[in-house]
Design a protein that fits this description.
heterodimer; A: alpha/beta; Rossmann fold; Alpha-Beta Plaits; six-stranded mixed sheet; B: alpha/beta; 2 domains; four-stranded mixed sheet; 14 helices; 4 strands
């Protein structure tokens, strides 16, 4: 049990009659990087805020770094770092002043503050710009500095709520390098994002939709098993008619248009596909099995869980 | 604890220093308002426009008219020729007061009967009307005693009929009843109140909006550390406000400062703590700066109206009078007026000081409890 950094059991948050997080179970091992993926309003931020002790769970419980978030939020706060969606630095303070402020809030020992600030400045790539006001920095620098501020007190667990939104790709890549650096020092990281390619950088992905955990696993596992069938690419002429025709075929789980081709998810044999279309007046090429992208997996799982939620 | 408070204060002061317009915003509007209030806020009624109609045309009536002209209170805008013309003057707003001396005025006066004098007053502004009417009474009384003295020369030995009591007024603390002396201390309290409440409310809400408040809330900071860090700078600004406006009132407008500066400092400190508490409470009730603005407007105006700043509390309905008891401004106005004009100390002012202290404790406690580091 010592290896578990974050453990949520039946975690639920209701705002009035709206259930933002619904009976969520989540277990994260020490040093793991877990990506939290889901559409807007799925409950990612609410979950992270409960784990930080910013919101009280309506039901269920959660332990972070061995402390109960509802009973001992102060102990949790001392052991976590948090970056919210907005860049929460003081724009009218300099790089150095922001670091001094957050270092003081977390009571980083005075003897160590200079060394840790130096490290954070190096991590953000802001050497020589210590006295620049933060509001004049570009998004990528601000974001890396915010991460630097969040880890000044060396927290064993880090919650990052869409840290890379609105940041250019190159800066996002650098940011992820920092995340993996931290993970290699056995910092546990839960990071929410809506960039699919970032999901590939995670050890495991937790997919959340409408407040419920839809799937969890490594990117490979999700690709292989989460769909419950094999994905084929199919070129044909009348794409719209083909989708309608395939929708009636019992072996087809889903068919969707991807640019000028079709992606068809099937259980069992693919032999009957071409004849089925032919009898319905659609000429199609040979179906080619393809590896589903994570995006395919998410689109599938989210739409399935949404349908399940409505019935 | 000291360390976290230290960095909070460092941050607040740095932000204040970086804000180039802060000093301007904090001081200039304040000075302008004191000057405007100092010159404009007055209940004194001078140069009342008067429409006169003398239908008697006797020596006696002309003498009464000359009393009106010589009083300096009135500005004769029309020597009317008919009652109609006087009414038209008042209707059109050319005159506030119309005086009609009816025919037979002097004859009645000479024969010791009641002499007919008609006075019309425009009551639209009830305050001006009352004061103007007071002037009319004064002038008529002066005319009457003058007439009586000439009818019964002094030393005749006979008792003067009609006038048995002569009252002479000597108002204490403000012998000339200068309105400024009443208003400027009120302005000091009111402006400091408005500024401190809104500054505090906006400062916290701004951090909430920008997102830095969330970042602070996940840190191990204690609510009271955050609140102290937020309020100490505004407390100092409030003290500077009070000092600045008081200096201006005393040096520029000649308001006396009879009492002790230390009593004022004590009263102002207690008052500012209560005002800070109110600002913080408003900030915990608002999510955005617009909400804070609306709430601020909603609260600060009634607090000013119900403070005794301009309207006497004793004349308010009982419910509103009760409400003034939870109004810190009310107590501070008592303190500052008493210190400046009367020169009394804590031996007299302790009930108001105690009320301010109690309000401060209650408001600050409430805001610490509401700021419970939770986003729920």
């Amino acid at each position: 049990m010592m290896d578990i950094a974050v453990q949520a059991t039946g975690l639920t948050k209701r705002f009035g009659s709206f259930v933002a997080v619904d009976n969520l179970d989540l277990s994260i091992a020490k040093g793991e990087v877990v990506g939290f993926i889901g559409p807007n309003g799925a409950g990612k931020s609410t979950t992270i805020r409960m784990l930080c002790g910013l919101l009280k769970p309506s039901a269920g419980r959660a332990e972070v770094a061995g402390f109960d978030v509802a009973r001992d939020p102060e102990a949790v706060r001392a052991h976590i770092g948090y970056m919210s969606q907005k860049f929460s630095l003081y724009g009218d303070l300099s790089v150095r002043e922001n670091l001094l402020f957050f270092g003081g809030l977390y009571q980083v020992p005075r003897g160590e503050i200079e060394a840790r600030m130096h490290m954070a400045i190096g991590m953000a790539g802001l050497e020589g710009r210590e006295d620049v006001l933060v509001q004049t920095l570009a998004g990528g620098w601000k974001q890396r500095l915010a991460l630097g501020c969040a880890i000044l007190h060396r927290p064993p667990v880090l919650f990052l709520d869409e840290p890379t939104s609105g940041v250019e790709p190159e800066a996002r890549r650098k940011f992820w390098e920092l995340i993996h650096q931290l993970a290699s020092q056995s910092v546990t990281i839960l990071v929410s994002t809506h960039y699919m390619e970032e999901a590939e950088y995670c050890n495991r992905i937790a997919l959340i939709n409408a407040g419920q955990l839809v799937a969890i696993g490594s990117p490979g596992e999700l690709r292989r098993h989460a769909l419950g069938g094999t994905l084929y690419e199919l070129s044909c002429e009348a794409l719209g008619a083909a989708v309608t025709a395939l929708g009636q075929m019992p072996e087809v789980i889903d068919a969707a248009i991807f640019s000028d081709k079709l992606h068809v998810l099937m259980r069992g044999s693919v032999e009957a596909l071409q004849p089925w279309l032919a009898t319905r007046g659609v000429t199609a090429g040979q179906p080619v099995p393809i590896a589903p992208s994570l995006e395919d997996v998410f689109v599938q799982l989210v739409s399935r869980s949404s349908v399940a939620g409505q019935t | 604890m000291i360390r976290r408070l230290q960095v909070m204060l460092m941050k607040e002061l740095l932000e204040l220093r970086r804000d180039r317009w802060a000093m301007f915003r904090l001081i200039v509007p304040l000075l302008i308002q004191v000057i405007v209030f100092g010159y404009a806020a007055t209940f004194t009624v001078n140069n009342v426009s008067l429409s006169l109609l003398d239908l008697d045309r006797s020596q006696g009536s002309r003498e009464l008219v000359s009393h009106f002209v010589a009083s300096g209170r009135f500005d004769v805008v029309d020597r009317a020729t008919s009652q109609h013309a006087v009414e038209a003057d008042i209707d059109a707003g050319r005159a506030v007061v119309g005086v009609i001396i009816h025919a037979g005025f002097a004859r009645a006066l000479d024969s010791g009967k009641t002499a007919p004098l008609q006075v019309l007053v425009d009551g639209t502004n009830s305050n001006t009307a009352l004061i103007a009417l007071g002037y009319v009474n004064q002038i008529v009384a002066g005319f009457q005693s003058h007439a009586a003295q000439s009818a019964w020369p002094a030393g005749a030995g006979a008792a003067v009929p009609g006038l048995t009591v002569s009252m002479s007024e000597r108002p204490w603390y403000n012998q000339d009843l200068a309105d400024r002396w009443f208003f400027i201390p009120g302005v000091i309290g009111t402006l400091a109140f408005m500024q401190v409440v809104s500054l505090t409310a906006f400062a916290v809400v701004r951090e909430r909006e920008v997102g830095t408040l969330e970042q602070i809330m996940v840190s191990p900071i204690r609510p009271y550390e955050f609140i102290l860090g937020k309020t100490v700078p505004f407390f100092l600004i409030g003290l500077v406000d009070v000092a600045l406006v008081t200096t201006l009132g005393v040096l520029w407008f000649g308001v006396p400062f009879v009492g002790s500066i230390w009593v004022l400092l004590l009263g102002a400190s207690l008052f500012l703590i209560a005002a800070l508490g109110m600002g913080l409470l408003l900030s915990t009730l608002s999510r955005t700066q617009q909400q804070a603005f609306a709430l601020n407007f909603f609260f600060v105006n009634p607090f000013m109206t119900l403070s005794g700043f301009a309207f006497p509390i004793s004349a308010m309905p009982a419910v509103l009078q009760w409400f003034t008891r939870i109004n810190p401004l009310r107590y501070f106005l008592v303190v500052i007026r008493a210190v400046l004009l009367k020169g009394v100390g804590p031996e007299v002012l302790w009930p108001s000081m105690l009320a301010l202290a109690a309000l401060g404790v209650v408001l600050l406690t409430l805001s610490v409890l509401r700021f419970n580091k939770s986003l729920d």
